[in-house]
């Protein structure tokens, strides 16, 4: 159990840091960086990893029951739409509030969805898990409040806040978060068959995580690819790929893609190691540690150095709540 918790935390740490190399790319527009990233992380990396690492790859997926494949595919497709909606929400309500609403919805709903597939745990465990999730959500929204205060102060000289845009952004972030929980559902639905099939082909336990990620990433990647092809054309950004910095940019984005994929695969293995309720507990720990990592990196890089004392107090209170909430979740799973 402890191993599962540590793996989930490590996966969240990787996810919280995977985008760091993006700061060092040159001569790429946003659309160039992220279209190449999604091409690599959703198709190239998972295909190479799956074909290379999974013994009996073709047998496992050719014999996969159609109903499981359809459920995983549809849920993953919705996950892709949700991620795209989150990027749109940021345009309306800013990064901090958009991130908090999106991740808050993902943690709450995504942590509870596996219960539909796996059934409810005993009442005492369920109570602790739900209490922990509630405390985590308080922390998420406290961080959102901190970011909102900071952004309001930083943009006080250019305050053109449109209440209708704010409402639209909030709705997009919440609906996007709901759809993005398809990742958790797809993992819960597909893992039992894929674990049994991988074992039958003589694969190690951790290979199941690689197998689970294959249909999830391919299905989710279809949405993201379509979106960025449209964006590259709309922003006339195709020509920016010809920059002399392409080689360096490609390497940096490949590192991002590998980290992103590995983080998701490690989460899937962590959920397996956590046993009963592993998807719920692992998903909560995974996403919370990702948020904590992202916030801590912002503190280290002095993003909050000019923030007001009120904003920083909300930030620190939010971090404390998330850590306390995860401890409750871990206890609830009988892991500590």
Descriptive account of the structure:
The chain has 336 residues and is mostly helical. The protein contains 13 helices and no strands. The protein has helices spanning 2-17, 30-53, 57-62, 66-93, 95-112, 114-118, 123-154, 163-180, 182-200, 207-234, 246-273, 278-300, 309-332. The longest helix has 32 residues, at 123-154.
Biggest pleated-sheet summary:
none
Write down the overall geometry: globular
Structural class: mainly alpha
The overall pLDDT, averaged over residues, is 84
Note the run of SSEs as H and E: HHHHHHHHHHHHH
DSSP strand content: under 5%
Total DSSP helices:
13
User: What is Rg?
Assistant: 20 Å
Please give the number of β-strands. Answer: 0
Calculate the terminal CA-CA distance, rounded to whole Å. Answer: 8 Å
Which blocks of ≥5 consecutive residues have pLDDT under 50?
A: none
Q: Percent range for helical residues?
A: over 70%
Quick overview:
This protein is mainly alpha-helical and 336 residues long. The chain has helices at residues 2-17, 30-53, 57-62, 66-93, 95-112, 114-118, 123-154, 163-180, 182-200, 207-234, 246-273, 278-300, 309-332.
Characteristics:
13 helices; mainly alpha; about 325 residues
What's the topology here?
Elements: H1 2-17, H2 30-53, H3 57-62, H4 66-93, H5 95-112, H6 114-118, H7 123-154, H8 163-180, H9 182-200, H10 207-234, H11 246-273, H12 278-300, H13 309-332
């Amino acid at each position: 159990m402890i191993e599962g918790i540590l793996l989930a935390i490590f996966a969240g740490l990787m996810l919280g840091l995977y985008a760091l190399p993006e700061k060092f790319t040159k001569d790429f527009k946003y659309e160039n960086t992220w279209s190449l990233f999604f091409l690599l992380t959703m198709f190239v990396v998972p295909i190479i990893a799956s074909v290379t690492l999974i013994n009996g790859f073709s047998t496992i997926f050719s014999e996969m029951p159609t109903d499981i494949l359809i459920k995983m595919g549809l849920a993953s497709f919705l996950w892709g739409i949700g991620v795209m909606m989150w990027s749109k929400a940021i345009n309306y309500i800013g990064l901090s509030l958009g991130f908090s609403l999106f991740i808050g919805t993902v943690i709450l709903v995504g942590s509870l969805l596996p219960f539909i597939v796996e059934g409810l745990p005993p009442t005492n465990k369920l109570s602790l898990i739900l209490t922990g999730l509630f405390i985590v959500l308080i922390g998420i929204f406290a961080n959102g409040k901190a970011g909102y205060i900071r952004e309001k102060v930083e943009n006080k000289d250019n305050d053109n806040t449109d209440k209708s845009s704010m409402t639209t952004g909030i709705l997009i972030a919440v609906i996007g978060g709901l759809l993005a929980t398809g990742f958790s559902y797809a993992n819960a639905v597909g893992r039992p068959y894929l674990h049994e099939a991988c074992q039958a082909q003589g694969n190690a336990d951790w290979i199941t995580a690689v197998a689970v990620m294959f249909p999830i990433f391919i299905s989710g990647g279809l949405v993201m690819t379509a979106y960025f092809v449209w964006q590259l054309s709309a922003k006339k950004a195709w020509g920016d790929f010809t920059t002399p910095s392409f080689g360096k940019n490609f390497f940096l984005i490949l590192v991002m893609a590998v980290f992103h994929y590995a983080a998701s695969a490690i989460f899937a293995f962590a959920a397996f190691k956590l046993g009963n309720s592993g998807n719920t507990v692992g998903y909560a720990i995974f996403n919370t540690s990702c948020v904590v990592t992202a916030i801590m990196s912002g503190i280290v890089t002095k993003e909050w150095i000019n923030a007001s004392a009120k904003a920083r107090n909300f930030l620190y209170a939010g971090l404390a709540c998330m850590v306390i909430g995860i401890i409750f979740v871990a206890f609830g799973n009988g892991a500590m």
